[in-house]
Amino acid sequence: MALSNFTYKNEENEEKEKQNKNVRIMQNEPIPDGMQVPETVESELFVPGFLMTQIGKYMRIDFLIGNSLTDRTGRLERVGASYIILRALDGNMVLCDMFSIKFAEIVESPTIVV
Asked: CA–CA separation, 107 vs 29, rounded Å?
């Protein structure tokens, strides 16, 4: 007897479910019933949760890399539990590590000279 639609619940399947959930969070798609969103992404008490409220705004982010600060600028596209994505002026997307962010300057009304 063959059960073609039967799958075992194992760590590999659970990991795939977690990855699919994270993709839906990034794309602001509805989360299916029974799946939980990390509190750090939902609550404005955490950096990712606050940054979720700022999507679409232009910002300059300062990162601590080693012993020095470096910055990136762009429009905030997406926020995950451990990263953000900025859209630079040239149209490229920049993936940024959430844990190295030290300062975020959020520009309410940008004046950009190209």
From this structure: 26
Tens of pLDDT, residue by residue over 7-59, are 555 566 666 665 555 544 545 555 666 667 777 677 888 899 999 999 999 99
DSSP percent split of the chain into helix, strand, coil, nearest 5:
25, 30, 40
| Amino acid in position 81 | A
Q: Burial letters for 50-87: b for 16+ Cβ neighbours within 10 Å, e otherwise?
A: ebbeeeeebbebebeeeeeeeeebbbbebbbbeebbbb
- Residue 3 falls in which region: left (phi positive, over 0), alpha (psi -120 to 50) or beta: beta
d(CA 58, CA 31) in angstroms, rounded, equals 27
The rounded distance, in Å, linking the Cα atoms of 61 and 44 is 18
pTM above 0.70, yes or no: no
